[in-house]
């Protein structure tokens, strides 16, 4: 963070890091968090000034982050003084749970903290989950109870995702492909041990490809990742799931072979691994991923 600030300001660069006193380098995690908090507050103040006296809409979504904590994103949509529609990311809030009441209280607290009134809400947009759009106890209903003018709009991206999922189930080949892909991911991600094996196989594959000159090196390149499960209600999740499986195709095959040949594993685990492996090395599956099928021939 200090390096980033220094790269944009010579005055800052002259007094930080190697140029700073040993007792005031400002590189501790607590100081870094404080700097981020100050920057975030400045951005929020700028957004508040831009909103002025305009009415506004809120767009909310929640998801679990890498540390398994529930985070809620709050975006404000409004018309500025020039008559232009603006969307501003106002805050991301850690919530203890995703019940409608918890989300509503967190939204109200965030708005109040930025000197915005719930009574000025003129629209609310969420996904179609029951805790969001419930007619009686959903977040939509709780907001409407306080502000009857806060009309609800079902997120268009979410509606499109649901439509695509429903349509894909009517095409046998597409439906079967995603069923098989999801089964493979579930088998490989069934235990921490298999996840560790997947990461080890991935690291070995990356090292080999770098040695062969097939991968570029550099800061941030070739980072370790994990397989992602698709979700019917999460837009682009199917794409991200297939993308992750394609990226770790070789490592996934390696783990499945290891489980299939592990005499200490249960017969059900070995059977699932063998079945998943058969799907992965079929001609259709390999062609879809643009891999040469013979590279993953089941020996």
Protein architecture, described:
The protein contains 13 helices and 5 strands. A hairpin with a 5-residue loop joins strand 2 and strand 3 (85-94). The chain has helices spanning 2-8, 10-13, 29-51, 100-113, 130-133, 139-146, 156-168, 172-188, 192-211, 237-247, 249-260, 267-280, 283-288, and strands spanning 56-64, 70-79, 85-94, 121-126, 151-154. Helix 8 (172-188) packs across helix 12. It folds into 3 domains: 1-50, no CATH class; 52-154, Nucleotidyltransferase, domain 5, CATH 3.30.420; 171-296. The chain has a 5-stranded mixed sheet with strand order 3-2-1-4-5. The protein starts with a helix and ends in an 11-residue tail after the last helix. By secondary structure, the chain is of the alpha/beta class. The radius of gyration is 25 Å and the shape is globular.
SSE inventory with pairings:
Elements: H1 2-8, H2 10-13, H3 29-51, E1 56-64, E2 70-79, E3 85-94, H4 100-113, E4 121-126, H5 130-133, H6 139-146, E5 151-154, H7 156-168, H8 172-188, H9 192-211, H10 237-247, H11 249-260, H12 267-280, H13 283-288
Parallel strand pairs: 1-4, 4-5
Antiparallel strand pairs: 1-2, 2-3
Helix pairs in contact: 4-6, 8-10, 8-12, 9-11, 11-12
